Each structure stands twice: as structure tokens, then as C-alpha cells.
Amino acid sequence: MTGADLHISTSSVHDKSDSYVHKHFRWDSIKQFVFLAFSVASSSYNFDIFSKVLYDRVKIVDFIFLEITMGITYMFMDLFIKQYTRRIDCYQYLNPLLRGIHMGCVLQSLLWNIILAGDLADAIRYFFAGFHFIPPWSKCNKHHRICVPTVNIILNCRMNNQTNLNETSASVNYHDSYFNSDKHELTSRLFVITLVWIINFFLATMTDTTLIKLVRISTLWRTFSTVFVLLFTLFYTEYFFTNAISQMFDATAPRVYTSAIDRITFAFGIGLVGVYDFGTMSPHTMIDNAVVIFGIIFTTFALARSIIVRVLYQALTVCIRDNTEITSHYLLFVVLPLSSEFLHVQKVFTIYIFLSVMCSLSAYLAILTLTISKLLHNEFRSVKVVYMVGILCFCCCNLSYPVAMLSKHKLIGLIQGINFTVLYLGGFKVAIVMWLYGIGKLSTDIQFSLGFKPTQFWTTCWAMHPILTFLFIVHKLYVLIHLTEKVQMILASTWILFSFCFVTIIQIKTIAKFIVRNNLVGVLKPRPKYGPPEPEDRARRRKFDVSTLHQYCVHRCLINEECYECNHMPLIFKRKSRVESMSDADTSLTNIFESGVVAKKSSIVMDSSQMHFN
């Protein structure tokens, strides 16, 4: 073989290897999943996680620990079942009891959509108000008794006098809008909420590919804008930047795991509808890698946003004395707009904050509305998806009005009820899948579909997930009982009780069907249609045996499936007689396969399904 031939041969081997790795990982599908998951995970509630400005402070170490043990493992399970069955209503085929749990998750997602629609309306109002020469949060009205405009705050700061945060113009106007129910403010909010749902209807009725393209554009803009503002903050406010990093990574801060689990439930879809790819991803995508990549990206950009928030908060505390419990909504519409006024380029920060919230919530509402509409279309097949989207937007728009008229103080109780409900729904879902269906069966499904067996890390986390969830539920129940605000406790308890009754009614109806059929045991077993959508693939799954993956030939080549043959070509160094060669051929043909464990030897030929990338 010449040098040129050798070069061509090696190049072809490398090309095949590169194309094989690309095909094995399905990078296009992984990118598609990251875009969709990042849009579903981003909301006004998760805009700031690590800055330690909010009343429910989250440590980075606590968040990462729960993210690895609960968030990523739950999303891996949820996404694999959807990809494995290629059904949006896959859970009722896995176990009939999961139908009620899944409909309960739909109910939580609907209420969460209604709450976030109000936040989107507020972001739109504040975004356009920020273009005024003097924004509304920087000036006081005549009827305000105690109100300090931003100009006076800056003058007091120059004389080394701090102003109380509750007396600032931003805080006073916020309380007039969301606590005192000003008629003008309430009318404008309801009008913008109506526009939000009208726009959401048109976005959700687009084709799936068009909507996914809009999601990509929204995600890319938020990504690049966050990087730009972070670099701008680094070079413009270097002193605040270094202090922000040291305060956020303070190891002496107390651990609050309950605050971290609340953020993880909404980021990774625990107890919610979760991510649905609308059939655009390959069913053989390496889901474990996709989920881990998403977790890294989400945590990285959450940390970047928290650094920006912490820097703005430090600029605020130079002139303002903070003695209030800051919520996510109060942070977005009082603290951050007011703190940007103390920097020379305040328009950059206000545009970034409100436009980022608008893009994330618009994508979130459109994706979740279309996903829930397709799910309800499977329950009511006579109603088309476009009509289902219209009915859903109309009902949610009408329900958004009473939620918008609730004060933000009362709305906290409703959010606490959602936090409790999504935990027990997610915990029961994992318990039914892992304890009734079985971790072994799920691992075999993964090995059959993706070609690798989950490691002990995944199986251990799946087994412990319901136990950890139960501990968090007990703690949250203790917190709800000892709430000092009775209104918040009543709203939280009402929603928890309503959700529990809703799920229980569906479960009773499901169990009654099996009792009538005299097949009560069938409630605990998967349906025959569970599995891949094609009947031939389901038949192959029933005949699939893991032991066939451990067969070897006498040449020690790896043999994994029936469709793969041994292509070991032994070298012949001496000529043999025809009789000897025929006898050797007979023995090699009759002893190609050996059962039992044989020590592995390195071989050039290797089946793709034996390469473990989990």
C-alpha cells in the first residue's frame, strides 16, 4: 500500500468515525431539546436564584446538589418516556394510575400559566414606560403623603443620608398598583392581560416548526444579551462586581433546601407538563447527555443573571436602606428599575431586564399552551387543536382577571400551594414508575432504545427520589400550618385541597373501569400498547433479552445482536491442504458462538450500541 493510499484509508476511517459519533449523539436533537427546555424553565420566578436578595435565599451548592439528585434525574425519566413512546399522553399507557397524576400536572401548569401571564403584562407595561424621559417609578403623585422621588434620593445620598426603600417613589407606586387597587392601574393591567392572551393565541396556532424557530431566536437573544450585560457590568462596576461574587459564594450562609427545591421544580418540570418536542427530536437521542448539558447551561446563565442582580442591588444599597422582604415580583418591578437609576446607563439595564422577561414568558406561554392543547385534544378528539387553543386561551384570559385583582401579598399563598402540589404530584409519578413499573424494566427500555444501560447513579437517584420528595412535602406542610398570614394559608390550602380532589376523582374513575372489567390487578400493570409506536418494535421489545448482548465469538469479537455478524478475518501464514482447510472451516463454522463469560480482548470491530456515553 502506498503512502497516498494509506492517507486516503486513514481519512475515510476518521470521516466514518466523526459521522458515527455525530449520529450516535444526535447533536441536532440535543440542541433542539436545550432550546425548548431553556424556554420552558425560564420564567419571572426563576429570573434571579443565587443573588441572595430575595427573602427565600438559595445557596449555589444546595441548588446544584438538588439539581443533580432530583431535577436532572426526573427530567431524564420524563423525557425518555415521551421519546420512547412518541406519545404526549404516554403516562396512562405506562400505568393507568398515572392518568390522574398527569391531569393534575396539567392543572398546575394551567394555573402557573395564568400567573405568569400577569407577570408578562406587567413587563410589557414597564418596558414601554421605561422609554419616558422620567419613568413612572422615579416620580411621585400629588396625593402621596410619604414619597421620595429618585432625584431627592440621589441628593440625600450625596449628603450621606439613606432613604427607606418603602418610602421611595418606585415602592409607593408599586403598592398603589398591586395593593391599593388603583382603578386606572387596574384597568390598564386588565387591558394588557387581554392583549397577552390574544397574542399568545396567534403564537400557539403557528406551525410547530415556526414556533420552534421563534423559541430559538428568543433563547439566543436572551443568551447574548445576558453575556453582553454581564461583561458590561464587569468593566463598568468592577468594585461592585467583585463584592457581588464574594457575597454570593459565602459559605457561612444558612442552608435553605426548601427554597432550592421550589426553583428546581419549575426549572425541570417536576409535577408539571414538562418539555415536549412536538415530534422534532430523534427517538434515539442520548437523553442523559442532553439533560446534563441543559442543566449546566441553565445553571450557568442563572448564575450570570444573579451576578447582574447582585451588582444592581449593591448600587441601590449605597443610597437606600432595605428592611423589607423582597419577592421575585417586587425585585423585577421595584428594586431593579430603581437601582438602575443610580447608574449612568440605566436604559441598558431596564431594557435588558424587561425585554428578557417578555421574551422568556412569551415563549413559555406559547409552548405550554400548545402542549396542553395537544394533550387535551387526545382526550376530546372531536375538537381540533386550533379550537382547543382558542378555548384554552379564552378560559385562561377570563381566569386571569380575578388572579390579577389579587394583591401580590395574597398571591404568595397561591404560589405556595402550587409549590406543595407539584412536589407531591412529581413524587407520586416517580414512585409509580420506579416502584410499580420497576427500575429494572425502565433500564431495559433504555438499553433497548438507546443502546446503553443506566449507571448506578441514575438508578440510585430514581429509587431515592420519592423518599426525598416525601421529606420536602412534610417540611412544606409544617411551614403551611405555621403561616402567620391567614389569607395565604387559606389560599394555599384551598388550592391543595382542590387539586387533591381533582386527581382523586380521576383515579376513582380509572379504578372503577378495571373493577367493572373484573381486572383490578390491571391497574398496577402497563397496557399492551405501552412502548414504541410501531407494533413490530413493541414485539421486539417483548423478546428483547439483555443476555444476548454478552455473546462472543471464538475470535473474541463482540457480538451484540442477531443482525450483526462476526467479520473477523484471520491471517493465513502458510498453505494448507484442501482437507485440512475444510476441517478447520467446519470447526470454525460450528463453534462461532460460545455461551458464558469470556475475557474481552481489544478488537477493531465493535458494535455501536456497546459504546457507553452515559
UniProtKB/TrEMBL annotation:
<dbReference type="GO" id="GO:0089718">
    <property type="term" value="P:amino acid import across plasma membrane"/>
</dbReference>
<feature type="transmembrane region" description="Helical">
    <location>
        <begin position="385"/>
        <end position="406"/>
    </location>
</feature>
<keyword id="KW-1133">Transmembrane helix</keyword>
<keyword id="KW-0769">Symport</keyword>
<feature type="transmembrane region" description="Helical">
    <location>
        <begin position="490"/>
        <end position="508"/>
    </location>
</feature>
<dbReference type="GO" id="GO:0005283">
    <property type="term" value="F:amino acid:sodium symporter activity"/>
</dbReference>
<feature type="transmembrane region" description="Helical">
    <location>
        <begin position="418"/>
        <end position="437"/>
    </location>
</feature>
<feature type="transmembrane region" description="Helical">
    <location>
        <begin position="290"/>
        <end position="308"/>
    </location>
</feature>
<keyword id="KW-0472">Membrane</keyword>
<dbReference type="GO" id="GO:0005886">
    <property type="term" value="C:plasma membrane"/>
</dbReference>
<feature type="transmembrane region" description="Helical">
    <location>
        <begin position="63"/>
        <end position="81"/>
    </location>
</feature>
<feature type="transmembrane region" description="Helical">
    <location>
        <begin position="256"/>
        <end position="278"/>
    </location>
</feature>
<keyword id="KW-0812">Transmembrane</keyword>
<feature type="disulfide bond">
    <location>
        <begin position="140"/>
        <end position="147"/>
    </location>
</feature>
<comment type="similarity">
    <text>Belongs to the sodium:neurotransmitter symporter (SNF) (TC 2.A.22) family.</text>
</comment>
<dbReference type="Pfam" id="PF00209">
    <property type="entry name" value="SNF"/>
</dbReference>
<dbReference type="InterPro" id="IPR000175">
    <property type="entry name" value="Na/ntran_symport"/>
</dbReference>
<feature type="transmembrane region" description="Helical">
    <location>
        <begin position="457"/>
        <end position="478"/>
    </location>
</feature>
<feature type="transmembrane region" description="Helical">
    <location>
        <begin position="352"/>
        <end position="373"/>
    </location>
</feature>
<feature type="transmembrane region" description="Helical">
    <location>
        <begin position="219"/>
        <end position="236"/>
    </location>
</feature>
<dbReference type="InterPro" id="IPR037272">
    <property type="entry name" value="SNS_sf"/>
</dbReference>
<feature type="transmembrane region" description="Helical">
    <location>
        <begin position="186"/>
        <end position="207"/>
    </location>
</feature>
<keyword id="KW-1015">Disulfide bond</keyword>
<keyword id="KW-0813">Transport</keyword>
<feature type="transmembrane region" description="Helical">
    <location>
        <begin position="33"/>
        <end position="51"/>
    </location>
</feature>
<protein>
    <submittedName>
        <fullName>Sodium-dependent nutrient amino acid transporter 1-like</fullName>
    </submittedName>
</protein>
